[in-house]
Design brief:
Blueprint lengths: L3 E5 L3 H14 L4 E5 L4 E4 L8 E5 L15 E4 L3 H13 L3 E8 L8 E6 L5 E6 L4
Parallel strand pairs: 1-4, 5-8
Antiparallel strand pairs: 2-3, 3-4, 6-7, 7-8
Helix pairs in contact: 1-2
């Protein structure tokens, strides 16, 4: 369904320092990094899409956080949710909800919520029973 998600950041080095360990915890390899633009992208090793991209906004204006906007990243299991949340907090993120079951969504929904250093809201979740 998704081709790519682009998350605007104000400090590329800080953002890369946040997203690189987060994506590593989710098993998503870096596809590219271009410091001249600056931007970087991660994608599954077994598929060409979807891509998660971070970088300076194309129009040159400062990146801003969208009210109500959230990017949710899929984890293969609950341990990966826990690892991604820990990586996010260890690299400048702030908690918006610790890992745990969220039965109001469905019986197996296990997720964690946090913000990146720019304030973009992210979720990492697993839908599998464990």
């Amino acid at each position: 369904m998704l081709s790519h998600v682009f998350i605007g950041v104000t400090n590329f080095e800080q953002a890369f320092g946040f997203y690189a360990p987060l994506m590593a915890a989710l098993g998503q390899p870096l596809r590219f990094r271009d410091d001249t633009r600056p931007w970087a992208g991660w994608m599954p090793s077994d598929a060409p899409r979807p891509l998660l991209l971070i970088g300076a906004p194309h129009d040159g204006a400062p990146a801003t956080v969208g009210n109500g906007a959230m990017t949710a990243l899929l984890a293969r299991d609950r341990a990966s949710v826990d690892a991604a949340y820990a990586a996010a907090l260890a690299h400048g993120g702030s908690s918006e909800g610790a890992p745990g079951l969220r039965p109001e969504y469905h019986a197996n929904y296990y997720g964690a919520y946090f913000r990146d250093p720019d304030g973009n809201k992210l979720c990492v979740c697993c839908h599998e029973a464990e």
